[in-house]
Amino acid sequence: MRYPGDYAVIVVGAGHAGLEAALACARLGLPTLLLTMNLDTIGKMSCNPAIGGPGKSQLVRELDALGGEMARAADATFLQLKMLNLSKGPAVHSLRAQSDRAEYARYMKRLVETTPALDVKQAEVTDLIMDGPAFQGVKTKMGFEYYAKSLVLTTGTFLRGEIFIGLESMPAGRAGEFPAGALTASLHTLGIRTGRLKTGTTPRLDRRSIDFSRIQTEPGLEERHFFSFETTGSLRPQQPCYIVRTNAATHKIILANLDRSPLYQGLINAVGPRYCPSIEDKVVRFADKESHQLFLEPEGADTTEMYTQGFSSSLPYDVQLAALRTIPGLEKVEIMRPAYAIAYDFIYPEQLDRSLKIKALTGVYTAGQLNGTSGYEEAAVQGFVAGVNAARFVQGQEPFVLTREESYIGTLIDDLITKEIREPYRMLTSRSEYRLFLRQDNAEDRLLARGRELGLISAARRERYQQSRDRIDREKTRLQEFKITPQPQVVEILAGLGEKLTAPASGYALLRRQKINLAGLRRLGYTPAEELTPPEAEKLEIEIKYESFLAEVTLQIQQARAAENCKLPPELDYTALSGLRKEAREKLQKTRPETIGQAARLAGVNPADIAVLLVWLHARSGR
Q1: How far is Cα 100 from Cα 239, in angstroms, rounded to an integer?
Q2: What is the pLDDT of residues 233-247, one digit of tens each?
Q3: Per-residue DSSP letters for 322-355?
Q4: What is the pLDDT of residue 622?
Q5: CATH number at residue 302
Q6: SS3 category, 21
Q7: How far apart are the C-alpha atoms of 160 and 387, rounded to whole Å?
Q8: What is the CATH number of the domain that holds 526?
Q9: What burial class does residue 305 get, using C-beta atoms within 10 Å of its C-beta: 0-12 exposed, 13-18 middle, 19+ buried?
Q10: Looking at the domain assignment, is residue 254 inside a domain?
Q11: 213 with 281, same domain?
């Protein structure tokens, strides 16, 4: 039965990827349908209700600069904010929010239900309707057919999802939710290759059963920082988080019960995340460690559930409980929801291009865990890119592509399509060779103009950004004009800061020193012309202190862009190119990179192979 009325874009799945995709399409004015298996779980945080952290806060800030929603949602619903890695350099400074799980979901559900041009319906998609490789519509389990010009698939962990708790397993997309059992077969009929991945979550504890007098308290952030550059005002009241540690008794219980672990009994035929291992995996792999740190974090303002970060597990319920009760402060703890592992289908992402379109199909885009990633932030930014490109496809416009030298989003997508992803991919700051340039504080400098070009950033926001940028630049000029001489009082103040001054210097020159900040300059008599916000002051200091390093990174970026501008024809037959090694031919033919830069990042392609490609391109352009 055909639904009366067609759409421009259909988005399947209402997790973090699907929400950003649907909102982007609708905000661009396209009639959009968001299909989800359960209207009550829109925007649900399946694992830890937290946004941000190293590598991830950079993604959220970039998404905000482009016109996405996650940053605003995080600011509106946080229970606690923290700035991580402050003891390290600014490239890895990362904002993190512990969110109210229920409030975040309500925020997102209310938003999609009130966004013009966006319809939200409950249905399970079982099949794609195609005309050859071209997308036409979707079929649902209830027999309805919805038609549109493009599709964004964001199925999360639901494709043939299976949950494991001990040696017991059950079909599920998440605990208590049905899986999507039929769609994988539809993808297979279209020639799309899939594999299996595994992830997991931790037990939720009853805070009433925890002795907080025996555990370490972690307070929230005092300075005013937010994820969205648009958020203003004061911080919300914050709740504390807590730290506990496992011990020898904990590890003994876990090791004694590995015969009841589906992971160690070979029942889970899927690869799990390397950077977020289960507690049993940690105890086995790091046998020399006497303890592992766990965080106890609130799930919401109106619930007693506490999340146990660091204790992901697939062990049986009784083993989880016994192990947790060996930890000081948790001797009488009660588990409200047990931890579990989940295995699910994903598509091998080398089948995608940089717009997140499936290469072999027309009008079909994918995002999130379906592409082999883990994490809300990784899913959200992919959803945004896929949604924007689905909309641009309908509008007959060129794809929207972000490169790795301009964004972490570009780095993420480039890694997915050039590296053979066979385990859940998580964004880390170390994945970017340009991380000093791709900081969370300067995401607007890098990407706001791109968001404005897309039509997702208002003129008013662009003007606010420019006013902020002008304030920072004016302060730089004043710092260059402010002169400091080595008078006795100045020398004494600088000595207290661990610095010396033997000749006159400008405030700008002094601020380049690592031990001196704006507060130190105020003690030396400097008064800003206008009060900068904490984020503006941070950006000012970073730009001055790391000026020479940023200049070097900028040169590297210019060189990388030259390689990215060197396009490879999509129809090129690499098997016919003499001079390429066999391994390089196979990798290039399989991945079909779009640029020389992308080809150079493929495993198995070396500089000699790139030289062959450059010679071929030169000869081709000569003809």
Answers
A1: 10
A2: 888 899 999 999 999
A3: HHHTTSTT-TT--EEE--EEEEEEEE-GGGB-TT
A4: 63
A5: 2.40.30.260
A6: helix
A7: 24
A8: 1.10.10.1800
A9: middle
A10: yes
A11: yes
pLDDT at 343 over 60: yes
The pair of three-digit structure tokens given for residue 591, joined into one six-digit string: 């991945």
**Position 601 pLDDT exceeds 90:** no
- Answer whether 427's CB lies under 8 Å from 408's CB: yes
**DSSP-derived 3-state class of residue 481:** helix
- Asked whether 112 and 118 are in contact (CB, 8 A), the reply is yes
Structure tokens at 264: 């160690």
Domain boundary among 316, 343, 370: 343
Question: Between β-strands 204-206 and 194-201, what pairing exists: parallel, antiparallel or unpaired?
Answer: unpaired
- Chain centre to alpha carbon of residue 308: 21
Taking alpha carbons only, the member of 471, 474, 480 closest to residue 533 is 471
Same domain for 372 and 493, yes or no, is no
Q: Give residue-wise pLDDT tens across range 3-17.
A: 999 999 999 999 999
> Which amino acid is it at 77?
T
Contact 95, 223 (CB under 8 A): no
The Cα 623–Cα 620 span in angstroms is 5
Give all strands of the β-sheet with 204-206 in edge-to-edge order: 216-218, 241-245, 293-298, 305-309, 204-206, 335-337
Is residue 175 assigned to a domain? no
What span, in angstroms and rounded, lies between the C-alpha atoms of 58 and 56?
Answer: 5
Q: Specify whether 130 is located in the same domain as 275.
A: no
Question: Per the domain annotation, does 54 fall within a domain?
Answer: yes
pTM for this prediction: 0.93
Q: What's the CATH code of the domain at 580?
A: 1.10.150.570
Dump pLDDT digits (tens) for 258-286.
Answer: 999 998 999 998 888 887 889 999 999 99
- Give all strands (DSSP E) within 158-312, no chain letters: 162-165, 168-171, 194-201, 204-206, 216-218, 241-245, 293-298, 305-309
- Cβ(585)–Cβ(575) under 8 Å? yes
Pick the last residue of a domain from 343, 377, 393.
343
Question: CA 319, 324, 327: angle at the middle one, nearest 5?
Answer: 140
Residue 588 C-alpha from the chain's centroid: 28
| One domain, residues 391 and 278 | no
Give the span between the Cα atoms of 600 and 310, in whole angstroms.
37
The reply to whether 277 falls in a domain is yes
Residue in the block written with tokens 């964001």: 154
CA angle 276, 281, 286 (to 5 degrees): 95
Whole domain around residue 439: which residue ranges?
7-158+184-198+344-454
Residue of higher predicted confidence among 344 and 589? 344
How large is the average pLDDT for residues 71-85?
96
Higher-confidence residue of 321 and 516: namely 321
For residues 20 and 352, what is the distance between their CA atoms, to the nearest angstrom?
19
Q: Quickly tell me which residue has 């606010």 as its tokens.
A: 464
What are the backbone dihedrals phi and psi of residue 44, each rounded to the nearest 5 degrees, phi first? Answer: -70, 135
